[in-house]
Structure formats: C-alpha cells, structure tokens
Design brief:
The complex is a heterodimer of chains A (about 90) and B (about 270). Chain A is built from 4 helices and 2 strands. Chain A has about 90 residues and is α+β, with helices and mostly antiparallel strands. The chains are: A alpha+beta (about 90), B alpha/beta (about 270). Chains A and B meet through helix 1 and helix 2 of A and helix 7, helix 10 and helix 14 of B.
Chain lengths: ~90, ~270
C-alpha cells in the first residue's frame, strides 16, 4: 500500500448511497409481487421441456440490474445424449 | 386516549430497545403517563435496560392468556412514577401472542396511559408485525449503514401496508431516528450522511443520536440514558427527539465534529 492510498481511503459513503438507491428502487417496485426471475425460470423450463428433455439443474436464469437497463441471462445446457427431440425419442 | 408508538427497525442491534427506554423515560419525565411494552417474546431485554429484571413476575403473554391481570404485570419504574414496563415472556415463543390478545392489551393500555411505546423484535415476522399492528406512530431506528437503511425501507413498506391504520386507509405517522451516528466518520465520507439516509427513506427525521459511550454505560447500569446522564450528548439528543415526538417543532442540528489539523489535512485530500 502506498502512502497515497492512505489519503484516498474514506469516501465510500457515495458508493453506499448509489448502491442503496438502485437496490431500493427495485425492491419497492417489486414489493408484494412474486419473484420475476423464478417465474421466468419456471416458464422457460416448461417451454424447453416440451421439445427437449433437460434437467432443472441445467437451466440458470440470472438478473443483473442496472440503473437504466437490466440484463437477463439465461444459460441452458443441453446434454448431448438427451438432446434428441422427444417426438423422435418417444 | 393515549398514543401508541412502535419502535422498530427490521435489523437487529441498531438500538431499538435502548431507544424505547430513552424516549419513554424522556416523555415520562414531562409528567405524561408512559407504558413501555416489550414485544420481543423469548428474547426480552427491555427489563434489563430499564433495570427491572429482578422485579419481573408476570409478562405480556400471561396477560394475553389470562393467567395474570394487566395491573399485576405492569412494573412501575423506581425513578419515575409515571413510567411503567410490561415485560415480554422469556420462556414462551412468539406464537404465544395472538392478534386479538395484543389488540385488547393495547386498547386497555391506551385508555390509561398517554403514551404506549412498543419495543419491536428484530425481523419482519409475526412478532414485529404484531408490535406495529396497532401503532399510531412509528419510530424507525436506523444506523447510517447500508444494511440497516435497506431493512428500514422494508419496515416502512410494512408500516404502510400491514398496520391497522393502513388497512383503514389512514397512515401511521413515521419518523426516522438515526442512532450511532459518528460525525467525524460522516464528515470524512466514510459513513452515509443524514441527508443520504433521509433522501433514501424519504421519511422525516426525529433525531440524531451520536455514537456514545454513555449509552453503553447506561445499559450497564440498567437505566435509560435520559435518566442517568441527562446532560450527555446522546441523552440530550434523545430528550430533544422525545419533544419532537410530542409535536414540538424543534430543529435538528446535525452533530458536527470540529476537525483537528490532521483531520483537516486528510479530509481535504480525501475529498
């Protein structure tokens, strides 16, 4: 740690304020509403399951909330052995 | 008809019980009849902070279950004859409280006392919701720190939705009481400022209690700080907060730390 770092410490309060404002804006809006991410997760799972056999564990849905835009990340892993369409398999 | 004030926070350890004792004693000092009710069933502590731990015979749960009369369970303070404590049960769990039972006890206290302070347990579960259920006003105890402010916001949401007043289309009058405020750290930008907290919570300020050794000493001695050391900084802040709670229009002065030479130097560089 350089001597300059000693002088830089201490201005964390503005970061705290910004993080809180962002978080609370979201929490207030979603208060009393069911969890969006878990609803999306279930519905996406249902759509995929119509066509492909996959395990619950292979679907990851995550959300990163930003001030002006949020990103929804959906990661679906389809193992090769079960990637055969149900119609053909059945 | 007395006023029912819930002292709540969501987060634990921010100073609900200390603030209940200090504010209640401050109001009782003015001659008003005050009851302090501990809602933290299973983890009672208001008796200890009030120095009445050896005088507890009956408690809130006994009264609700009809095994004791309200007058038997109320403990009169040894220092102030207008101050009473209704302790929580230490042996039962929080399910021992029923909404009807709490409603009846609060209604009876309201008819006898000028102020009823309900010391809420931490969290947002049943115990905390029952403590706020019949409140007219709420003191939201908040530390200038991210998790405490977030939890306070959550509690404000509950006060606006789950209280009797909210359900009847009225509002619980809410006040933020900032505790453990360290003026030096705030001025160095290490701690959320009062403006930050008020802007985020958009709730009026009841007072700012500075971080103080006096508060711990008062707890050690089993006396509300407003009784044992009324001239100290934290006690003065509580006494003023109590006057505002009673409706007095008293401006809040943000505690200011006079900076030494080194602080000034460091402060300037940091900004």
């Amino acid at each position: 740690m350089s001597i300059l770092d000693l002088f830089k410490r201490g201005t964390s309060a503005p970061v705290a304020r910004e993080r809180l404002q962002l978080l609370l804006a979201y929490e207030r809006q979603s208060r009393g509403q069911p969890d969006l991410v878990s609803i999306l997760r279930e519905e996406i799972m249902a759509v995929i399951a119509k066509h492909v056999q996959i395990d619950q564990d292979y679907l990851q849905v995550s959300m990163d909330r930003g001030a002006t835009m949020s990103t929804l990340e959906i990661d679906i892993q389809i193992p090769n052995k079960s990637a055969v369409p149900l119609a053909m398999a059945g | 008809m007395g006023k029912v004030v819930v002292v709540t926070s969501g987060k634990g350890g921010v100073g609900k019980t200390t603030s209940t004792a200090a504010l209640g004693a401050a109001v009782a000092k003015t001659g008003k009849k005050v009851a302090l009710v501990d809602f933290d069933v299973g983890l009672r502590n208001l008796d200890l902070i009030m120095g009445a731990e050896r005088r507890v015979v009956f408690d809130l749960v006994n009264v609700i279950q009809g095994t004791a009369k309200l007058s038997q369970a109320l403990i009169r303070d040894k220092r102030l004859e207008t101050l009473y404590l209704l302790p929580a049960s230490q042996t039962r769990d929080k399910d021992a409280l029923t909404e009807e039972g709490v409603a009846e006890v609060i209604a009876r206290l309201r008819s006898v006392f000028d102020y009823v302070f309900c010391d809420s347990p931490a969290g947002i579960e049943r115990g905390a919701q029952l403590a706020m259920r019949f409140a007219d006003e709420a003191v939201i105890v908040t530390n200038p720190e991210v998790s405490s402010v977030r939890d306070s916001d959550r509690i404000i949401g509950l006060l606006d939705a789950r209280t009797m007043r909210a359900e009847q289309g009225e509002l619980v009058q809410k006040h933020v009481l900032v505790t453990r405020y360290d003026a030096a750290r705030a001025s160095r930008g290490e701690m959320l400022s009062i403006d930050d907290v008020l802007e985020i919570l958009s709730t009026p300020l009841l007072g700012i209690i500075p971080e103080s050794q006096d508060v711990l000493r008062a707890s050690n001695l089993g006396s509300p700080v407003t009784l044992s050391e009324p001239l100290n900084g934290a006690a003065k802040a509580y006494l003023e907060a109590a006057r505002r709670l009673e409706g007095e229009d008293l401006p809040v002065v943000v505690p200011f730390e006079r900076k030494g030479f080194l602080d000034r130097l460091l402060g300037r560089r940091a900004a």
